[in-house]
């Protein structure tokens, strides 16, 4: 997996060494000698990861990281801070600035590659959601604001069979406002994640009765849990298991003895990233819903109708399928006499009637200006004709009042077509219903007609 990596260090030899190692792994590498240059390159080049030295003149790594995370064009880029300062307070300061990890010089090559692969993998996933969400925002389908989310009230699961160790993690998370549950075994953890929507899993690699990496693998292999951030807790001598955990999809790690502030900062960053991904996913879902539905009636539109009808035709091998084309009679007269706002209100009342008089598993789409399509899976000719007559009568009985004291009669003309195992064309079925509907109009309106036998 190749990626673009930006190395930021004021010492040329450090830049050269890191560039040589990463280039040997076929990563694309760019370098910057100070924070200002790093900010310009990050905005223009959009790297997949920034390796950022802490000790630099003028603008140090902490301030550079803070500015990267405050810029909407670079906030999504993972940052790994690299420094000779290994004190806990320095790591905490970097994490508070928004860094995704903090490596101490001299950097262990295996650890560096493991973190690069893990963070790049996560960024690629977020990029997919982000690009889809950006398209939706450009089209005006979702809000373009993305505030920094608070994590109070988030849910975390601590998996550890050592009571004191689990309690330390739970206490640290609770000070951040995170609701932390506990599981002492793999079976207990799997049962909890199947029922509770957790925002973080903190997994101890020191469990004695079971292999925690097997649980990590199962979490990543399950659709419902594969996107939950996974934070590993390890002993200093468990480097090999940590690296294996990252290969399996872990997101972050902390070593014992646990520094509560560092754990809180790492947990906070992971939960915020999950909230960010959840927001992107929700935006996309909202955009798709808006793209496939009619805003006036809430029904599906033509963009949804045809693929849906094709899928039903392909799946109903033994049963039938009925399609109704419903057209509001003399609708232009309503617009001309009372205005388009009243016409919209008339369409909504007809739509509400259709919605309340059809089965829960029937589909309704707005097909045109005053035309609707009702799709009835599994319905035969007799059942569909009874349903169409019921819809016609229900609309006729509406007491529509375009103005106070004025009642205007609403009626619909309905054409019904049927499909059986041999018919696979959604377009032909809609054409048949449409022609039957026009026969109903030509026959005097406010009536139901069926397609001829050649369509059945």
From TrEMBL:
Top-level division of the source organism's lineage: Bacteria
Protein name, UniProt field: diguanylate cyclase
SMART domains referenced in this protein's UniProt entry, alphabetically: GGDEF, REC
UniProt cross-references to Pfam families, sorted A to Z: GGDEF, Response_reg
InterPro entries linked to this entry: CheY-like_superfamily, Diguanylate_Cyclase, GGDEF_dom, Nucleotide_cyclase, Rev_trsase/Diguanyl_cyclase, Sig_transdc_resp-reg_receiver
Domain GGDEF: 319-453
Cross-referenced PANTHER family: DIGUANYLATE CYCLASE DGCM-RELATED, REGULATORY COMPONENTS OF SENSORY TRANSDUCTION SYSTEM
Response regulatory domain ranges (all copies): 4-120, 155-271
CC annotations in GO: plasma membrane
Modification sites for 4-aspartylphosphate: 53
Enzyme Commission no: 2.7.7.65
Catalytic activity: 2 GTP = 3',3'-c-di-GMP + 2 diphosphate
One of the protein's GO biological processes: phosphorelay signal transduction system
NCBIfam families found in the cross-reference section: GGDEF, PRK09581.1
GO MF, one annotated term: diguanylate cyclase activity
SUPFAM superfamilies: CheY-like, Nucleotide cyclase
Record's keyword terms, sorted: Phosphoprotein
